[in-house]
Specification:
604 residues; alpha/beta; 22 helices; 14 strands; binds adenosine-5'-diphosphate; binds magnesium ion; binds zinc ion
Length: 604
């Protein structure tokens, strides 16, 4: 799941908790109120041990009363009669009148009653006080609820978390050597701004970090603050976007006020595309967005040269950003944070393996080789999953098998051994996966097969894993065409062997279609259409081309897919024996590893 959703969920959970708390409080108050009423009512009930007011007055007149215990405010009294052992309860409708009456009797010497007036007991006091406060409490609770629902309340306090002492340093950031080298300069600016000012240099204002989620943008920003030992103030772009106009802008203002107070410091704005996307239309949300963006631009322009506040921002959608953000004096430095290469992956794995108990048989190099294209966050996640799996498996240390299982869990989802698969489905899956594997075996550009399995995992009925052992920056047209063939090998095998096709290939087809479309419309790989980017950055650019071009794109995509599908079928017909052998092994043992797979093709 991505960070943004996580944060949102946490926030929602928080306000939900508050709501539930308020509701529980209300319920408790109600119950307390009802109990209090019941107690009072019950204590007023009449039984054989009760004297009515008239009876009591009569007894007093007969001088038969020894003692009366009363509680202030209560309508009952304990009465001890001279001729009876047990105390009786008497009902007194008007205590003031009654007390006056008794005192009169005592004063005039007609009676020697002992009259005790006790203050109200606390027990009686609380519920009735609560009862009288109930309406006020409900009003307050309602107010808080409304406040929370509108997303105001204490959020204004939470918005900027200052991590004055970020413990993170460049040591914690693996790989990214060139990027770090570039950022060392920023660290130096923060440490000794006078040095640069004296020389007449303008201190850079903003640095934009581009990169996929999980590549370590937040991490490296924290590391800069940690290296320079300055406060790190962070906020996410999505938090600026508010329901109420002007709030986003005022938050930006507050954020920078704080930064000025704490300077030298780092301000980190995550997901800056949420506020800094291009100003296009004039819809409500957009206008609000613009105000926030404008405020940000004003703040960045307003720094004086003595204030060492460096604004770092992160985004994974650089093309979305408003050009105004990139002007000199604003985010004029841009650093791309790439997904790690083999060496980088190994270093990241090493960093995250430090605090884990790894067995000697775990080979981090081989994991790094198998995880081309993975981000730092995913690699960290793999090692964490390994520790969880090792614990589940009752191992003393994390074994290699635990790590391999974790890699698969992160890539294809959890193994579902208990799911019952019918024999027919099993056969279909076996041939489908064998189809992928056999076809790729005969395609020179395609990676070697690492493992084929027909044990369901996540949503997939089975999977074919390839050994990706090199990092590629460019992919050739031949390679893309062969990728299409390998993707359609599953469907081709189903058709060839079972003369029927299934829904199991839908994901393959989706991926293949996307690749073919990109080949034609993005990479200019179609001879008929030429090297033109038909996808465009702006939606209206597409309209530059007529329907005629649209038809041609469709036909070209179809031609690529058809060609690949035919080629897959040809290959499978040609190597039908291998297809049957692999599918046979899969049906027998459900999985086939790299070595076993290669053995089938021995001597070729
Ligand atoms: P981003 O901000 O780019 O989405 P993060 O900086 O939040 O990514 O990275 C998430 C986590 O992934 C980090 O906390 C760290 O554990 C791990 N990670 C990512 N890149 C690296 C790296 N280069 N070195 C070490 N750990 C990394
Ligand atoms: Mg981040
Ligand atoms: Zn498939």
């Amino acid at each position: 799941m991505n960070n943004k959703n996580n944060q949102k969920n946490k926030k929602e959970q928080k306000s939900n908790k508050a709501l539930i708390g308020i509701i529980i409080l209300l319920v408790i108050l109600l119950i307390a109120g009802i109990v209090a009423i019941v107690i009072i009512e019950n204590s007023d009930k009449k039984d054989e041990n009760t004297l009515s007011y008239t009876e009591l007055v009569e007894e007093i007149n007969n001088k038969n009363v020894e003692k009366i215990d009363m509680t202030v405010g209560s309508t009952t009294a304990k009465v001890k009669l001279k001729d009876e052992e047990k105390e009786k309860t008497a009902l007194i409708p008007n205590t003031e009148v009654f007390v006056e009456f008794v005192q009169q009797q005592k004063l005039t010497g007609q009676n020697d009653i002992e009259l005790n007036q006790k203050p109200r007991s606390i027990l009686v006091q609380i519920p009735s006080t609560l009862l009288s406060l109930l309406p006020t409490l409900i009003m307050v609770a309602l107010f808080i609820m409304i406040f929370k629902l509108q997303g105001l309340g204490e959020k204004g306090k939470v918005y900027d978390e200052t991590e004055t002492n970020t413990k993170v340093t460049f040591k914690d950031v693996a790989g990214l050597d060139e990027e770090k080298a570039e950022l060392v300069e920023i660290v130096d600016f923060l440490k000794k701004p006078e040095k640069y000012v004296k020389m007449g240099a303008k201190i850079p204002r903003g640095v934009l970090l581009y990169g996929k989620p999980g590549t370590g943008k937040t991490l490296i920003a924290k590391a800069i603050a940690g290296e320079a030992n300055v406060p790190f103030i962070s906020m996410s772009g999505s938090e600026f976007i508010e329901m109420f106009a002007g709030l986003g802008a005022s938050r930006v203002r507050k954020l920078f006020e704080k930064a000025r107070r704490l300077a030298p410091c780092i301000v980190f704005i995550d997901e800056i595309d949420a506020i800094g996307s291009r100003r296009t239309s004039n819809s409500g949300a957009e206008t609000e967005n613009n105000q926030t963006l404008n405020q940000l631009l004003v703040e960045m322009d307003g720094f004086s040269s003595e204030e060492t506040v460096i604004v770092l921002a992160a985004t994974n959608r650089p093309e979305m950003l408003d050009k105004a953000l990139l002007r000199p004096g604003r985010f004029d430095r841009q650093i791309t944070i790439p997904t790690p290469d083999l060496k980088g992956r190994l270093e990241i794995l090493k960093i995250h393996a430090k605090d884990k108990r790894l067995s000697d048989n775990v080979n981090l190099e081989s994991i790094a080789e198998d995880t081309a294209g993975y981000t730092g966050a995913e690699l960290a996640n793999i090692l964490n999953e390994s520790a969880i799996i090792a614990t589940k498996n009752g191992h003393d240390e994390i074994e290699n098998e635990d790590v391999e299982e974790a890699v698969k869990k992160v890539t294809v989802g959890l193994e579902k051994k208990e799911r019952v698969v019918s024999e027919k489905d099993k056969k279909l899956t076996a041939y489908h996966e064998a189809g992928h594997a056999v076809v790729s075996r005969y395609l020179p550009t395609q990676a070697n097969v690492k493992e084929v399995s027909i044990i369901p995992r996540g949503v997939a009925g089975g999977y074919t894993m390839y050994k990706t052992d090199e990092d590629k920056y460019y992919i050739s047209k031949t390679e893309m065409k062969e990728k299409l063939i390998a993707l359609l090998g599953g469907r081709a095998a189903e058709k060839l062997v079972l003369d029927d096709i299934s829904t199991g290939a839908s994901n393959d087809i989706e991926v293949a279609t996307n690749i073919a479309r990109d080949m034609v419309t993005k990479y200019g790989m179609s001879d008929k259409l030429g090297p033109i980017d038909f996808q465009g950055k702006e939606p209206y650019e597409i309209q530059m081309f007529g329907e005629d071009i649209g038809d041609k794109i469709g036909l070209e995509v179809k031609a690529l897919i058809d060609e690949a599908y035919n080629r897959a079928q040809q290959l499978l017909i040609e190597h039908r024996d291998k297809l049957d052998t692999i599918a046979g092994i899969l049906l027998k043992q459900e999985k086939i590893n790299e070595k076993e797979f290669a053995e089938v093709f021995d001597g070729e």
